[in-house]
Hints:
Elements: H1 15-26, H2 33-36, E1 40-45, H3 57-70, E2 74-79, H4 92-109, E3 114-119, H5 124-135, E4 139-143, E5 150-152, E6 155-157, H6 161-171, H7 177-184, H8 199-210, H9 225-244, H10 249-252, H11 255-267, H12 273-284, H13 291-300, H14 315-320, H15 323-330, H16 347-352, E7 376-379, E8 388-391, E9 401-409, H17 412-418, E10 431-434, H18 455-459, E11 466-469, E12 481-483, E13 503-507, E14 512-515, H19 519-528, H20 538-546
Parallel strand pairs: 1-2, 1-3, 3-4, 9-10, 10-11, 11-12
Antiparallel strand pairs: 5-6, 7-8, 8-12, 9-13, 13-14
Helix pairs in contact: 3-9, 4-5, 5-12, 6-7, 8-11
The site of FE2/S2 (inorganic) cluster has 10 residues, from loops.
Amino acid sequence: MTGGLRKGLTSYGDDGFSLFLRRAFIKAMGFTDDALDRPIIGITDTASDFNPCHGNVPDLIAAAKRGIMLAGGLPMAFPTISIHESFAHPTSMFLRNLMALDTEEMLRAQPIDAVLLIGGCDKTLPAQMMGAASADIPAVVLPTGPMLVGHYRGEVLGACTDCRRLWARHRAGELDAAEIDAISGRLAPTKGTCMVMGTASTIACMTEAIGLALPGAGTAPATHADRVRLAEASGAACVRLAGAGGPTLRQIITPAALRNALTVLQAIGGSTNALIHFTAIAGRLGLPVDLDMFDRLGREVPVLVDLKPSGAHYMEHFHWAGGVPRLLAELASFLDLSAVTVSGSTIAETIASAELVPGQEVIRPCGAPIQVGGGLAVLRGSLAPGGAVLKRSAATPALLRHEGRAVVFDGLADMAARIDRDDLDVTEGDVLVLRNAGPKGAPGMPEAGALPIPRKLARAGVKDMVRISDARMSGTAFGTIVLHATPEAAVGGPLALVRSGDRIRLDTEARRIDLLVDAATLAERQAAWTAPAGAERGYLRLFLDQVLQADAGCDFAFCRPAT
Length: 563
Ligand code: FES
């Protein structure tokens, strides 16, 4: 037997001594030989006082341990990095690849036959799946689950779509300081992840659709008994995988399963960030995500799930309407139903057991969609030859075809300093441009792509403008916002060459974003451009040296498989 405690022995040049020493030390915890001879199921412990989205992780670990032991395994929880969106400077995306490295190397270093990955806040599940894909061991994913909704003066609130909407009203002078303070106590009323179809919810639903999480795991509320039962069942599933030696992530994430997940991304009107994250996860397995294929899916697959920010409801309503299995049933004609899952069944079997909820209005049939054509469009053109993304389902229809004058901000500090000035030369029809906010530029490609409407325009009632950047945006945001312009300005991409006053044209139907400046002028500007300085040391230096562009998932170059 080479599994269990005998796996991955510490190097002393004497395997017998290595195993003897390992047993001697672990017995300090009171384990018996019987326990130590069971399949070992690792559990990633991402609880942190800085991470309320993972506030239920201790309860989930307790339930998962119960499921593992009932199924004959030995649970071993171990800590990894935990990242919360609001507690990560300069931005959580800067740390995603560090968490992926941490997860991968701890999965390799410790004697683990299968692992239960518990995560939830935006960057955590992608990081865990990237690491587990590279480590290539059997794994089940358990999202922490969404929060319940909040309430304020009779209005239902959800983080963080309503955080942004109500903050915009405060900026416009419609809500005073006392009101916005009271609202801050109502937006996130329970532990768990943001309860709109933001990045965390999108990733959780796609993880269920790709077959790495049990049915219901993408949507069950963080604080409900369903979530605890899912933890117990996920633990038991890990023991089955350990006994069978798989499937591993490589066997679950096939091209067909990846396409299923991207189909779900379109149908839920999901977060643009998910495209970057799943590109990174698949990239660890040598699977490319073809942006043009993804855009074709976007033209064919309708948006069926009526959740904020594209629609009206919240994650708990999606769950009670049947969740991802019900959605997969509606999407069956677009899916490869033979794809296998960690529950041991195929997507076809998941669909067969989907709950049919009479009268529910959250998951629409294909014949009555929220929107014809999916949520996300891939744009190309002279401003983004490597691609850019626009969330159609959260945009203002009248702005999807628009030409306007560029108002350029050179970076986040420039934008913060000038955007609210009364003397800013800007009108409603202009196009706001933010550059140097990409993977290398900021660094870490922060969620700054939803540039605020300049205060003087917000006060005049302007709710949306065309905005373009090399940044990302929160999955909870809304507006006519072109993101991920690739290559980014910090590596000399076309965004670096835009000047205020240039004309920019967005044509979503034609999938174009163009800078209307002649080639000779652009060549002059290119010749005058200089690259920003790198970093001297530490993780920042590693990050700047290795991070890839958005179309490669912003992974580190050295983490991709050798070709
Ligand atoms: Fe953690 Fe939104 S801040 S999911």
